[in-house]
Amino acid sequence: MNRLTDDSLTGQRGITGLETAIILIAFVVVASVFAFTVLSTGIFSSERSKDTVFSGIKEAQSTLEPRGAIIAYKGLLTGGTSTIYKLSLVLSNAVAGEPVDLTPSYDTDDAANDPDIISGAKQVTVVSFTDKNQAFNDLPFTVNYLGDNDGDDLLENNEKAEITVWLLDRVTGTAIGTAGSVAYMDGSGDGGGGGGITSSDTFLIASDEFTLQIQPPSGAVLNIKRRLPTQLDTVMDLN
């Protein structure tokens, strides 16, 4: 039996256990880096998706919805022409969610001439009006809470707020000498002195169609489209 000599091993090559370990460690490190990158990207995408979902939920929770009918009130212009001088509706949260700030810039504490501007009031909800002839982006409105409320200007869960939108000033026993609530133009008396219909604009009359937009500080805009009846009564249900 021949024995191998040292010379017979000359020229043969191999790999040691240390080199194998180094290669395996390198593969593990590279794979770990790629895995960390993929996981980080996935987590970031998941967080962005979660933020989008929560943002959508918040928008829905801040949405207003009308409760009941839209009421229109007739007044008389100087000269006896009938028109609509205010619109009212009751609002609540569409879902049990975020409170909606309904701080008004006007009130109705004067029995003879309303609405009256509130000095220093910080109004954030905006009411707009459009019809076929004109558009007003910031109409005066007043707020009266119905039933349960905690005394602040936030419309919260289980609360209902009556919003009165003033197209014209209400003046009692003036204009053509008719007693009662009369809407009229005195040259400067638009809706409380801010953004209402003026004598140079077109007044609402029978059969006119209009759209109200109520824009809270967050959440969807509430659009309400109605048409007036062919004959104007003192108080009209436009439901």
Secondary-structure blueprint:
Layout lengths: L16 H45 L2 E3 L4 E6 L5 E12 L6 E2 L4 E2 L5 E2 L1 E2 L8 E6 L3 E2 L4 E6 L7 E2 L4 E7 L3 E3 L8 E3 L25 E7 L6 E6 L7 E3 L2
Antiparallel strand pairs: 1-3, 2-3, 2-17, 3-12, 4-11, 5-7, 6-13, 8-9, 8-15, 10-12, 13-14, 15-16
Largest sheet: 6 strands, antiparallel
Rg on CA atoms, Å: 35 Å
Distance between the termini: 113 Å
Average pLDDT, all residues: 78
Assembly type: single chain
Q: In total, how many beta strands?
A: 17
> How many alpha or pi helices?
1
Share of residues in strands: 25-35%
The ordered string of helix (H) and strand (E) elements is HEEEEEEEEEEEEEEEEE
Class based on secondary structure composition and strand pairing: alpha+beta
Helix percentage: 10-25%
What is the domain total for the residues?
1
The best one-word shape is: elongated
> What ranges have pLDDT less than 50 throughout 5 or more consecutive residues?
175-181, 185-192
